[in-house]
Amino acid sequence: MQTTIEGSLSQTGLGYGSMNLREQLLRSLDSSREYRHAFAEEKIRSGLAAQVKTIRERREMSQSQFAKELGKSQSWISRLEDPNEPIPTIPTLLQVASKLDIGLQVRFVSFSDLLDDLTELSPESLYVPEFRSDPKLFPRKGPTSIWRGAPPQGSKAEVVDFRVGLLKGRHPDTPETIPIAREA
User: Fold this and answer.
1) pLDDT < 50 stretches in the chain
2) Is the CB of residue 182 less than 8 Å from the CB of residue 151?
3) Integer Rg of the chain from CA
4) pLDDT at residue number 124
5) Element spanning 55, H or E
6) CA gap 116, 111 in Å, rounded
């Protein structure tokens, strides 16, 4: 049984025909209270699974590597990324957020906000940068790379901003000198 949001749409006969997605969803939500609350639960289930997977993939990690970073097993990560598994508890999500150095927001919203969130969904909207990599908090000019630990061997880096641990130097794989961010 498909339990993703797209699967839920296909089960209700909603396609991507002449009506836009928001209108289609609104008609379905208007059909019953039970449908609305099942929809809200499914959005949480599918959204969290997709977001965890997106964060892991954007960090270029396998499930095993990600599990090691979180201090969990690979099968635990697999369940976290599976929308058919039970929704993780808030303490579990807080633990994941802490390990990844990202925030967590849990709040009640209107169904119009759920629709807005769903219809504006994109891969970029699922990714959450770590605190020091958040461009809204620490804007950077030009191309950047994130180094974990010491700068790559063969790089010639100098610290140019102690506040956020910015380095400027030459990465061994890049012919030109570029600004490079390093986590503090």
Assistant:
1) 1-18, 144-145, 147-148, 157-184
2) yes
3) 20
4) 82
5) helix 33-58
6) 9
Tell me what pLDDT residue 123 has: 79
Long-range interactions of 93-100: CB distance < 8 A, separation 24+? 93/48, 95/70, 96/52, 96/70, 99/69, 99/70, 99/71, 100/55, 100/69, 100/70, 100/128, 100/130
The Cα-based distances of 130 to 23, 35, 183 in angstroms read 35, 35, 10
The end-to-end CA distance of the chain, in Å, is: 46
Name the CATH superfamily housing domain 5-128. lambda repressor-like DNA-binding domains (1.10.260.40)
Cα-based angle 133, 57, 55 (whole degrees, multiple of 5): 50
pTM attached to this predicted model: 0.62
Q: For position 125, what pLDDT does the model report?
A: 83
**Which residue ranges make up each domain of the chain?**
5-128, 129-184
For residue 131, give the DSSP letter.
G
Query: Tens of pLDDT along 119-165?
Result: 777 878 888 889 988 888 988 765 544 544 555 555 554 444 433 44
Q: Is 39 exposed, middle or buried (0-12, 13-18, 19+ CB in 10 A)?
A: buried
